[in-house]
Amino acid sequence: MPELSKDVVALLQYLAPGFLVAWVYFGLTSHIKPSQFERVVQALVFTVAVQAIVAMEKWGAERIGSRWFSLGEWTSESTLMASMATAILLGVGVSTLTNTDGIHALARKLGLSKRSGHPGEWFGAFCDCPRYVVLQLKDGSRIYGWPSRWPSESSNGHFFITDVTRQANGETQVLVQLEGILIDAKDVASVEFVKEPETNDGQAPSTCDPTAA
């Protein structure tokens, strides 16, 4: 195994906070990891952001230490610990804003963008429309139920459907004996989102009634 040069090791140490942010981000979101080059670029951007935040943290700590109380001198170890903690918190914060569509919702409200924070229209439809679905399979059968899990991409992954009703060859089967069923996304031709029925007061319930369709 070839040894890494000192320059490469120094570069990896420099980008470590950025890689940590990216690791947390992709671990908490459904976005697909980009290419290796794009990961390095992202790590560089995140590293600069972490360094800026740590610089403000150092300034604040020194101000507090000079005016009120001091926990000790700010050293290189302090910078390392602050960088790691900041990277983790930044990754959690960015992933939370992405999963809740916070940044893009504000951008849409201000007319700056029409995009969402979801990895694609497929994933966004399931996030924004929590309701019962009908999976039209390529073999002609139909699966009705609640999508407890769904894939990030339309061509890869599986659906986990609960409260399952299956229609095939003109027959309808209510699979009450099953906890759920896994459906390969490659076998799905289309997905239908069941419209929520209105209640007596004219309002739609928070979730759909499985017996309504």
TrEMBL record:
Question: Which keywords fit this entry according to its UniProt record?
Answer: Membrane, Transmembrane, Transmembrane helix
Q: Where do the TM regions start and end?
A: 12-28
Task: Extract the Pfam families matched here.
Answer: DUF6338
Annotated InterPro entries? DUF6338 (IPR045919)
Q: Know the name of this protein?
A: Uncharacterized protein
**Organism, per UniProt?**
Paracidovorax valerianellae
